[in-house]
Amino acid sequence: MNLVYSDSQGNVFDHPDFLALGRNAEMITEIMEDELIPLPEGATLVSLPFTRPVGIDAETGDMKLVPGDYHAVGALLPQGFTRLLLPGYVKSDKTKALPLFGYTAVVWKDDAFYVAARLSDNPYFWNPIHCDVTELESQVKTLTAKYPENRLYAHLSNCALGYECLTASNTFLQRWEGAVPVSYSCNAGCFGCISEQPDESGFVAPQTRMNFKPQIEEITQIMLEHLRTPDSIISFGQGCEGEPSTQAALIIPAIKQVREQTKMGYININTNAGLTDHIRGIVDAGLDLMRVSTISALDDHYNAYYKPRAYTLKNVEKSLRYATDKGVITSINYLVFPGVTDREEEIEAMIEFVRRTGLKLIQLRNLNIDPESYLGIIPKARGELLGMKQMIEIFEQELPDVVLGSYSHTPKFYASDRNTTMVL
């Protein structure tokens, strides 16, 4: 399997004399054949600035930098695929941070690109190819004209057309999982936040956070427009907002008003679940699904990344347990990173956390972060590093009643034969 690299103009090549390597945290490692799948439809190859590609010289067997002014290349995977290894590289300028994306090791093999990844969910619904831009533009015009005073539709139109956010696009296409952002504030200071970064962080937030407080009517208009089919999902908590539960005073009456008018579809919240009292109110108002974002079930790791304000991981656990006990289908948005998530102590803690909270689904989501910056803020490994593939196999064995997936699903998903939909 040949190393893949790029020049300073972004042209991508495979090296005939260098074998590809990957990274598991700081450790540069061999890529095994059973870790590779063909580059998925909808994936993107990107050049990693400020890096040098590292490979194995096929003639000598030595690990070497590719000579010349070249950069490492990674793949950005669509939803449904879990990264197993980072690209093999070293930083050429350690003061520079990579943009906030989830870089995956990519190789050239059998006249095609392959990536170190695993199929975790049906990729169809979140494949950008299935978002028709012409239809989207038409629907944006239709709904913004129908609700000219609705600031949320105006905000989401930029998310859909400018940022190409598929959840926002679904809101206009009136299908699958749609977005209804509500919050400009947050009770956490996530290190890798994609909508707000302090000037001194060294990162550029790839999205702009909403800067207004919506009216309840603006929220219910979007919810009622979207909840038109049995399988529709409308979700609070998007990448363009802060923590939605900080706006429980808006969410609770909005849910109640919508449910007075329709029982169609499902209402979901993507949340850090730190504000337990607020979550209880939202659950009791008629919530159907809840996805909680977490990076670890260990306090020191969780706190280092999320920087929670006036809540702890125990609050998160209480919120999940309450929602589960009330019949809400609960899942975690598990931000995974090769060389960290697959640490022995991380795996053990997460298994116990899942058992205590009664989760139905672990959504394996690739953490978008500069690896060196992330590794610099979190605790060092305390146990053995098992590898992402083995970690997933352990979860499957130890948590047989919990689904490993990549995104939120409606209740009928859990009663179906999921294997029939897991195709490339």
From TrEMBL:
This protein's UniProt keywords: 4Fe-4S, Iron, Iron-sulfur, Metal-binding, S-adenosyl-L-methionine
A Pfam short name: Radical_SAM
Every Radical SAM core domain range: 181-351
UniProt feature coiled coil, ranges: none
Superkingdom, taxonomy of origin: Bacteria
InterPro entries: Aldolase_TIM (IPR013785), Organic_radical-activating (IPR034457), rSAM (IPR007197), rSAM_sf (IPR058240)
Cofactor: [4Fe-4S] cluster
Protein name as catalogued: Radical SAM protein
Organism annotation: Paenibacillus anseongense
Organism taxonomic ancestry: Bacteria, Bacillati, Bacillota, Bacilli, Bacillales
